[in-house]
UniProtKB/TrEMBL annotation, chains A, B:
<keyword id="KW-0238">DNA-binding</keyword>
<dbReference type="InterPro" id="IPR019885">
    <property type="entry name" value="Tscrpt_reg_HTH_AsnC-type_CS"/>
</dbReference>
<dbReference type="GO" id="GO:0043200">
    <property type="term" value="P:response to amino acid"/>
</dbReference>
<dbReference type="Pfam" id="PF01037">
    <property type="entry name" value="AsnC_trans_reg"/>
</dbReference>
<feature type="domain" description="HTH asnC-type">
    <location>
        <begin position="12"/>
        <end position="73"/>
    </location>
</feature>
<dbReference type="Pfam" id="PF13404">
    <property type="entry name" value="HTH_AsnC-type"/>
</dbReference>
<keyword id="KW-0804">Transcription</keyword>
<dbReference type="InterPro" id="IPR000485">
    <property type="entry name" value="AsnC-type_HTH_dom"/>
</dbReference>
<dbReference type="GO" id="GO:0043565">
    <property type="term" value="F:sequence-specific DNA binding"/>
</dbReference>
<dbReference type="InterPro" id="IPR011991">
    <property type="entry name" value="ArsR-like_HTH"/>
</dbReference>
<dbReference type="InterPro" id="IPR019887">
    <property type="entry name" value="Tscrpt_reg_AsnC/Lrp_C"/>
</dbReference>
<keyword id="KW-0805">Transcription regulation</keyword>
<dbReference type="InterPro" id="IPR036390">
    <property type="entry name" value="WH_DNA-bd_sf"/>
</dbReference>
<dbReference type="InterPro" id="IPR036388">
    <property type="entry name" value="WH-like_DNA-bd_sf"/>
</dbReference>
<dbReference type="GO" id="GO:0005829">
    <property type="term" value="C:cytosol"/>
</dbReference>
<protein>
    <submittedName>
        <fullName>Transcriptional regulator, AsnC family</fullName>
    </submittedName>
</protein>
<dbReference type="InterPro" id="IPR019888">
    <property type="entry name" value="Tscrpt_reg_AsnC-like"/>
</dbReference>
DNA sequence: TCTGAAAGTCACGAAGG
DNA sequence: CCTTCGTGACTTTCAGA
C-alpha cells in the first residue's frame, strides 16, 4: 500500500499534489512542462491528469479575468435571511438564474446564506437586490467591497 | 470609431468578450477550437489572446480543484475589526503569508476586511484565527460555510 | 503505473494585404 | 487587424515491461 492506503481514494499522493500545484499556478501548462516539473514522462503525467479529472479532484480549468476591464467593477457580499422561517429551503435554486451571483454559500450563523456578487454599478446592485428579494422571499444585508488586496489564491498543497 | 470609442481601451469588443467567455468555460481550450467558436483564424485568435493578456484583461489560467479531495473541506468567512482604530492600515500585508487565506476584501460596513479561508478542520480554523489575531491585531468574527450550492460561476459577458 | 515511439494536431511567428 | 503558410512543439494513443 501507499501511505495509509489513502482512505478509499480520498487523500492524494505527492506526485498528484505536485501536478495540481502546477495546474493551479498555470492552468494552461503543457504536459511536457508538467512532466519535467514533477519528474515524470509526458505520458505518465497525461494519465495522471486524466485520472484526477475522472476522480473529480480536477474539476476543470478557467481563465482569471479582470473584473474592471470586463465592465463589472463592483463586488459585494449579500447575506440572506428568510422572511418566512417555515418556507422550504430552496433558495439556491431560486437564485441560480441570476448570473450576477458568482457564489452561493450556505452558512452557520445569524444568516442562512452568503452570496458573492459582481455587478456593473451601484444601480445594477440595487436592481439585483430587488430581484433577489423577489425571487427568494428573503431580507438582505449587503456589504460592498471597496478593494481586493488579493483573491482566489491557490491553497498550499 | 467602434461603439463609443471604448473609453481609452476600457471596454471590450464583442469578439474579445466571446474569447473570454470561452476561456472562462474552458481555460485549456486550444486556439484552434477558440478560432472556430468565435469565427476567426487561429493566428487572429492567438494575437487577440496575447493582447488581452498584455492589457491585463486576461490575468492567467488556473485549474478548478475540489476542496474536499485535497484535504481542505472547511471554508469560512472571517470579518476583521481593528483593535486600535488609529493603527496604520497594513492588514493585507500582515496576513499575506497565511496561505489558508484565499481572498482578502476591504469592505464598507461594520468591519474593515472580510477574509475567505479554507482549512483542513475546525482545529486548523482555530489555529488560523489565533494567527490572524496575532499577526494583524484585530478582533475577528467567523462564519462557517456549511455547503456551497455553487461557486466561482463565470460572469455573463 | 511507468516508458518510449508513432501519428496526428497545434502553436506561433513571418510575410503580406 | 486580418489571412495563409511552414516548422517545430505538443498531445494522445498504444505496445511493452
Amino acid at each position: 500500500m501507499t501511505d495509509r492506503n489513502a482512505a478509499q481514494s480520498s487523500e492524494l499522493e505527492a506526485t498528484d499534489r505536485a501536478i495540481l500545484r502546477e495546474l493551479l499556478r498555470d492552468g494552461r501548462c503543457s504536459f511536457t512542462d508538467l512532466g519535467e516539473r514533477v519528474g515524470l514522462s509526458v505520458s505518465a503525467v497525461h494519465q495522471r491528469v486524466r485520472r484526477l479529472e475522472q476522480r473529480g479532484a480536477l474539476r476543470g480549468y478557467t481563465a482569471r479575468v479582470d473584473g474592471e476591464q470586463i465592465g463589472l467593477p463592483l463586488t459585494a457580499f449579500i447575506s440572506l435571511t428568510p422572511i418566512d422561517p417555515a418556507a422550504p429551503d430552496d433558495y439556491p435554486q431560486r437564485l441560480e438564474h441570476l448570473s450576477e451571483i458568482e457564489s452561493c454559500f450556505s452558512v452557520a450563523g445569524d444568516e442562512s446564506y452568503i452570496l458573492q456578487v459582481r455587478v456593473a454599478s451601484p444601480l445594477a446592485l440595487e436592481d439585483l437586490l430587488r430581484q433577489i428579494r423577489e425571487s427568494a422571499k428573503v431580507s438582505t444585508r449587503t456589504t460592498v467591497v471597496l478593494s481586493t488586496p488579493f483573491e482566489n489564491r491557490a491553497p498550499e498543497l
